[in-house]
Write a structure and sequence with these properties.
The chain has about 140 residues and is α+β, with helices and mostly antiparallel strands. The chain has one domain (about 1-135): Alpha-Beta Plaits. About 40% of the residues lie in helices and about 20% in strands. The protein contains 7 helices and 4 strands. It has a 4-stranded antiparallel sheet with strand order 2-3-1-4, with helices on both faces. It is globular and about 35 Å long. It starts with a strand and ends in a 7-residue tail after the last helix. The relative contact order is 0.24. The chain binds inosine-5'-diphosphate (IDP). Inosine-5'-diphosphate (IDP) binds near residues 58, 111, 113, 116 and 119.
Length: about 140
């Protein structure tokens, strides 16, 4: 099934000039980048994005990390895109991620893991509305 998922290159990825390289990996894996922008995320939006983690002990650190500099937000389209992107990105902890996944290759630690990708079609829709509201204001 043709799907669209939301991906964010987090501040540690932008800071280390990995943006172009990471985008290329998506294209190389047959994913089409249909919308893309660099933004400075506001804390309120990141709180909404990670609302389900608000009780976690690392939540405040997560907000600080995610808002410390610009992020690159994009939509990746393709066959079975949600799962294929999660596979390409790898699991949360880079040390536990499979070889050649982007987090394994570039993630620093369990917190600064370079990339966010939606975990389901429902999350992708919710997160797309949050980060690309302009696409819905027809
Ligand atoms: P995911 O990004 O792999 O879907 P989530 O559990 O939704 O993982 O966590 C969201 C983000 O919160 C992670 O990508 C990571 O940046 C941060 N995070 C998750 N677990 C920890 C932790 O145990 N310590 C610090 N940061 C964490």
């Amino acid at each position: 099934m043709e799907e669209r998922t939301l991906v964010i290159i987090k501040p540690d990825g932008v800071e280390r000039n990995l943006t172009g390289h990471l985008l290329k990996e998506f294209e190389r894996n047959d994913l089409r980048i249909s919308h893309l922008k660099t933004i400075q995320p506001e804390t309120a939006r990141v709180r909404k994005h990670y609302a389900e983690l608000s009780d976690m002990p690392f939540f405040n650190d997560l907000l600080t990390y995610f808002t410390r500099g610009p992020v690159v937000v994009f939509l990746a389209d393709g066959e079975n895109a949600v799962n294929r992107v999660r596979e390409l990105v790898g699991v949360t902890d880079p040390k536990a991620a499979r070889p050649n996944t982007l987090r394994r290759l570039y993630g620093i630690d369990k917190s600064e893991n370079t990339i966010h990708a939606s975990d389901s079609i429902e999350s992708a829709e919710r997160e797309t509305k949050l980060w690309f509201p302009e696409l819905f204001n027809a």
